[in-house]
Amino acid sequence: MARDPIDPVELVALGAAGVTVVGGLGAAVAFARDSSPQLQGGLLGVAFLAFALALGLWAVRAMPGGTAVEEREPLASAPADRRAAVAGFERGERVLGRRGVLISMLGLGAATIGGALLVPIRALGPNPGRKLLRTPWRRGRRLVTDDGRPIRPEDLAVDGVLTVFPEGDQSPGDAQTLLIRLPDGVDRPRAGRQGWSVQGCVAYSKVCTHAGCPVGLYEADSRRLVCPCHQSLFEVTDGARPSFGPATRSLPQLPLGLDEDGHLVARGDFSDPVGPGWWGLSS
User: Fold this and answer.
1) What does the pLDDT read at residue 200?
2) pLDDT in tens, 50-102
3) I need a surface site. Which of 72, 202, 212, 241 has the fewest CB within 10 A?
4) Distance between CA atoms of 166 and 275, rounded to whole angstroms?
5) How many whole angstroms separate alpha carbon 49 and alpha carbon 279?
6) pLDDT at residue 127 in the model
7) How many CB atoms lie within 10 A of CB 270?
8) 187 Cβ partners below 8 Å, 6+ apart?
9) Using CB atoms within 10 A of its CB, is residue 161 exposed (0-12), middle (13-18) or buried (19+)?
10) What local confidence, expressed as pLDDT, does residue 45 receive?
């Protein structure tokens, strides 16, 4: 039996699917080799255009369409009709076989494009792991100013405020801390935090829990910290609880102690992870 000629449209669709595979692989290789963004984008663009062309041709040629209406004929078919039906079935089987190759090629093209789009994920950098949950504060580290001067409680006046850092590691932004000296008897420590203050000195993270802005304004009259970005207010005498504005988490507190020379030191890291609430961390 003579074979049906291959449909040129199917050949074009198959070729377009092949171009999709080549373009997707080329884009992945270009990104891995740190080639120019123009080359990476161009190869991805070619892959997408070829994939769209292959899908369109496949939908037009291979998918059934239109409406067919046929009057009911007698159930018994003539021998000629039966022979024609068998021939048509065999011809359709060959066509379906060719279309199976096209479908497989389209699937490979889609997988290639997906792989090429996943490759740039490595540009996001290494997984931070638990680094976002810790700061350089450690037990015994002295509180120092930005020029490295250690602090004693008496260095601050009542209702005085000072930005301090862990000694020897003053660069990390998440370690900056507000040291405030409160009058005697006004602080209301949370459960489990009794003894975290020294001679009225309390310490809280300077990083706002809303958007990460520096909370650097202290209202001595109301004993509140104010974030200048979005006006969140934090009650210093109540564990730096947010009382106004978009912030929903309290500022993390740093437990304080004294070393043998009378300088303020940390007794550990902050009570909670530092930073904005979008990290999904509990207060």
Assistant:
1) 92
2) 888 888 877 776 666 667 677 766 666 777 777 777 676 556 545 445 566 66
3) 72
4) 17
5) 38
6) 59
7) 23
8) 197, 200, 202, 237
9) middle
10) 86
Distance (Å) of CA 194 to CA 183, 198, 234, 251, 257: 16, 10, 19, 17, 12
Query: Residue 263 has which token pair?
Result: 């300088």
Packing angle of the helix pair 37-61, 79-118 (nearest 10 deg): 160
> To the nearest whole percent, how much of the chain has pLDDT over 70?
76
Q: Who has greater pLDDT, 205 or 94?
A: 205
Distance CA 177, CA 207 (A): 8
Confidence at residue 240, expressed as pLDDT on a 0 to 100 scale: 92
